[in-house]
Amino acid sequence: MKRVVAAAILVAVQGLVWPAIAEAADQLVISTGSPKGVYTKYATALRDKVVEMAKMRGLTPPEIVIATSNGSLENVTRLGKGEAQLAPVQPDVWYHFKEHGKGAPKLQLLTQLHEEYAYLLCNRAAKITSVDYFEKNNAELITVGSGAAVTWRAWVELDKDYARSKPIFEASPAVALQKVAAGGGAPCLLYVAGLNNDFLKVDAAKLADKVVLTEIDDGDFNDAKDFRGERIYQFTDLPKNTFGKLQPGGVFNNTGPETLKQRAILVADADWLAKNPQIHELIAEALIDLGDIADAIAAGRK
């Protein structure tokens, strides 16, 4: 099933034939994420498809730049400053702007991408059974990467009691894992990624005797809404046998724990789209042709 939002991308430009690309857009910048991450791989596929569509119509393709970043927050910031025109983001990035009293840039949804899950990985000896530990205690939590930092900010906005705990940012998943496994400091880390991620399946699995995935089950998180007013999170159990001994129940009878998932989205600077209808049409056609490729990339099939 293709998740392109037709009303958002197939506007009045649909069906028109343009003799040339408008001079107003000499360059299209897509702000992404880590160089090898899903966001960057998807943006690269989109760039190649837009170029292909332009050539099929006898047009000179626009210059498209893939700009890696620290993730959703930097992507939206770049859009607001005019430093980028398109970007994949986590929907819960909007809570950063609510928290800091800053207005989010005027954006337009282009399409939905892949599902991303929140993972709460805790030291086994700490015997923490739920995320509400951080609601009830003055504790420390390592947020791994900007995705987890954004999600934690959203949770604090949704339930102020979580503000009693202190997030500690760590860019390196390996460093965060080592700290939690060693004990004596922050008892858990928060990580946001798809199901097919090497951090949990490979790295954390090596320390499964010391760390375990823990429930994210606070109903207050269900109230999260994105910039369109749409619900962000969906509660779900992690599929059985996805992460082996990291899941409750060990190797042969593991299931869950309950967690949250959200679907990443591709957004664009709405004003830029309005000023560049020719390129908007090319992007729309490319998105339709790409279909669900983001899911395939996230699952490791592309």
Question: Care to describe what's here?
Answer:
The structure is a single chain. By secondary structure, this protein is an alpha/beta fold. It folds into two domains: 144 residues, Periplasmic binding protein-like II (D-Maltodextrin-Binding Protein, domain 2, 3-Layer(aba) Sandwich); 149 residues, D-Maltodextrin-Binding Protein, domain 2. It is built from eleven helices and ten strands. The strands form two sheets. Strands 3, 4, 5, 6, 7, 8, 9 and 10 form an eight-stranded mixed β-sheet that branches. The chain has a two-stranded parallel sheet with strand order 1-2. Helix 2 links the parallel strand 1 and strand 2. Helix 4 packs across helix 6. The longest helix is centred in the N-terminal third of the chain and has 19 residues. The chain starts with 5 loop residues before the first helix and ends with a helix. 45% of the residues are buried. The N terminus is likely disordered.
